[in-house]
Write a structure and sequence with these properties.
- The complex is a heterodimer of chains A (190) and B (442).
- Chain A has 190 residues and is mainly α.
- Chain A folds into 2 domains: 157 residues, no CATH class; 31 residues.
- Helix content of chain A is 83%, strand content 1%.
- The longest helix of chain A has 32 residues.
- With 442 residues, chain B is α+β, with helices and mostly antiparallel strands.
- Chain B is 27% helix and 30% strand.
- In chain B, helix 7 links the parallel strand 19 and strand 20.
- The chains are: A mainly alpha (190), B alpha+beta (442).
- Chains A and B meet through helix 5, helix 6, strand 1, helix 7 and helix 8 of A and helix 1, helix 2, strand 5 and strand 7 of B.
């Protein structure tokens, strides 16, 4: 037991010695994005209470182990908190919260993808990170515009949210199916 | 430069595979869409929007080719202590840019390259290339591996990754630094009648040996008229003949001792052996002599005698492959014998005298009349590793025994000298030359 602990401490020390700034900042970005996403999505009553510690621990998990399933679980946790807040706690669907959660969750997800491929001790050219973040921000911008338009349409339709959700959902499902089909076809060729 | 890396997907499926990020994207998009439709919540559908848009943007064009990785070591001729300008180049033959290429390499510990122990993360544009410069220096002679290099590529915003592409290592030849060496003393014997050395025998040459009375057979152009007029008797200028020589460098590779610290650190036995051999070979080859090399070990590699700059380069190349080669056989009787050595060659044996077989070989060479000089290559202060309380005492005994061996060799007429660069061999060559000028009873 003692030996294992010593080995673990030694390994942690070695990792800290070798770690470089850019991968560390990327992981910090993941942590900040998911912590903020959890904070925005979950009801204030729960965040301020005894659930804060486990919730934030899960939010930090992808930053520590970006190659695992942490990011998926964290995003699901955020969505669960959002549904709980808008269903059981009767919070209204505010535009800023939808925009914030969508942007933060996507940034956390894409930075996790980067961190998973980027060793913690790598010497990183800055254009890797700037290109990556630039693309993520472009995606966030497009989706934000879409969100604003869709929520505006929902309020304009006055109660037609169910119809709109069905239509947008179906369009998304068709898009996802096409994407999967394309990937499967590539797999056959490649 | 190494050959471009082979395709990474040899029999192991496609080169490009989906990453966990793509799986997450598909799962979350699908789940949020289903929940949005099921619960009639457009906000849930909108939460899926960035994932769907990100996937659409990323996967609008798919990669088809694997990257190519090459290694370049810079200069072809590197001398230990010299600069190595290594570079790892990743080429992108594909139609999309590589968002992230992680390149790692492993190098020999004798090539100190900046940050070579770290992975490098770069981007590579469409149909372009990017290079990672690894400047550094070569610390020790030998053939050192630069590589293998592995590159892993992520494209489409990290949704697809290429299987690692691995390039086989590139051998970097690092030639030994030749310590300054100059022997001015005459060669003990020579094989030919012409050459660059004044011999100790009178004959046709350029080196004045003295003036003596004219004798039948002397050439008229040799008459020293000034002395002849003064003495009123014909006198001729006697010269020493010019000779070339063959030098055999015999490298004792039966064992390695001491720690090699590279070109600026401590020298092991083989370090001293190789550097001294290079220096001696350079000296004699520059002088126009023929130099051959031979290993005294189980393998008994041999380099035939030759002369000139080409032979010097061959010698350096040959020295790169010097390895400890103890073997269990007795090389003195089986693979090495005095018949391998030309009778007129100067044999320079570079040996740490750690193995009794080396002392036997030296004694045998001297016994059969070869002009032999032993260069002691054992580093100062070399001692076996501390294994117990008796190690120190055992080391002292071993030193005493070694001194005895050296003493006995000297008694047998084998001059033993420690390698110290310039002029190391002058004193012993003088002794050997004096012995050589005496009649030999063979």
């Amino acid at each position: 037991m003692r030996k294992t602990l010593d080995q673990w401490i030694e390994r942690a020390r070695r990792v800290l010695d070798r770690a470089t700034l850019v991968p560390f900042l990327v992981r910090c970005g993941i942590a900040v994005a998911f912590v903020l996403a959890v904070s925005v999505a979950w009801p204030v009553e729960l965040i301020a209470g005894r659930f804060a510690l486990p919730l934030y621990a899960v939010a930090l998990w992808p930053a520590i182990a970006p190659r695992g399933r942490g990011a998926t679980i964290t995003v699901l946790l955020v969505v669960a908190g959002w549904i709980a807040d808008t269903t059981w706690f009767d919070q209204r669907v505010a535009l800023w919260r939808v925009l914030g959660i969508a942007a933060l969750v996507y940034i956390g997800h894409t930075l996790t993808a980067l961190a998973a491929a980027l060793p913690y001790d790598a010497m990183v050219n800055l254009d890797v990170v700037t290109t990556w973040i630039g693309r993520a921000l472009a995606v966030v911008l497009i989706s934000s515009v879409l969100t604003v338009i869709a929520l505006g349409l929902t309020s304009a339709l006055a109660g037609g949210a169910f119809v709109l959700a069905t239509l947008v959902g179906l369009a998304g499902a068709v898009g996802a199916t096409m994407l999967l089909a394309r990937l499967l076809r590539r797999g056959d060729v490649g | 430069m190494s050959d471009p890396s082979p395709s990474p997907d040899e029999g192991s499926g496609p080169a490009w595979v989906p990453t966990r990020a793509l799986g997450r994207t598909v799962l979350l998009t699908g789940l949020l869409l289903v929940l949005g439709v099921a619960l009639g919540r457009v906000d849930l559908v909108l939460l899926a929007a960035p994932f769907a848009i990100g996937a659409a943007v990323g996967l609008r064009r798919m990669p088809r080719s694997a990257p190519e990785v090459t290694i370049d070591s810079g200069d072809e001729y590197v001398v230990e202590g010299g600069r190595v300008d290594a570079a790892l180049t990743v080429s992108n033959p594909d139609v999309i840019a590589y968002d992230l290429v992680v390149v790692r390499t492993r190098t020999s510990s004798w090539l100190r390259l900046e940050q070579s122990d770290r992975p490098f993360a770069i981007t590579v544009p469409v149909d372009g290339w990017a290079a990672v410069e690894l400047p550094g220096e070569a610390l020790r002679w030998g053939r050192h591996d630069l590589g293998p290099v592995a590159a892993r590529v992520a494209a489409c915003g990290g949704l697809l990754a290429c299987r690692p592409v691995v390039t086989s290592p590139l051998g970097v030849r690092v030639y030994p630094e030749t310590e300054p060496f100059a022997a001015v003393e005459a060669m003990p014997a020579a094989a030919g009648l012409v050459g660059n050395h004044r011999s100790r025998r009178p004959g046709e040459g350029g080196e004045l040996a003295g003036v003596r009375p004219f004798a039948p057979g002397d050439r008229l152009r040799r008459i020293d008229w000034r002395v002849s007029l003064r003495t009123r008797d014909l006198h001729v200028a006697a010269t020493l003949s010019d000779r070339d020589a063959e030098v055999l460098l015999l490298l004792d590779v039966l064992g390695e001792a001491g720690t090699s610290g590279g070109v600026r650190g401590s020298a092991s036995v083989l370090d001293t052996t190789v550097r001294a051999a290079a220096a001696i070979a350079e000296h004699y080859l520059k002088g126009g002599d023929r130099v051959s090399l031979m290993e005294f070990g189980a393998g008994s590699r041999r380099l035939r005698a030759a002369t000139g700059r080409r032979q010097y380069l061959t010698v350096l190349e040959w020295l790169l492959d010097v390895r400890p080669d103890p073997g269990d056989e007795m090389p003195v009787d089986t693979v090495f014998g005095a018949h391998h050595v030309s009778p007129d060659a100067l044999v320079v044996v570079l040996t740490p005298l750690l193995d009794p077989r080396a002392a036997d070989m030296l004694a045998q060479l001297t016994q059969v009349g070869r002009y032999t000089v032993a260069v002691d290559t054992l580093p100062t202060g070399a001692a076996p590793p501390q294994r117990g309380e008796w190690t120190e005492l055992a080391t002292r005994l071993w030193r005493i025994e070694r001194e005895n061996v050296l003493g006995r060799l000297r008694e047998h007429g084998v001059p033993v000298v420690s390698w110290a660069g310039t002029g190391s061999l002058d004193l012993v060559l003088q002794d050997v030359a004096r012995l050589a000028s005496a009649p030999r009873g063979r």
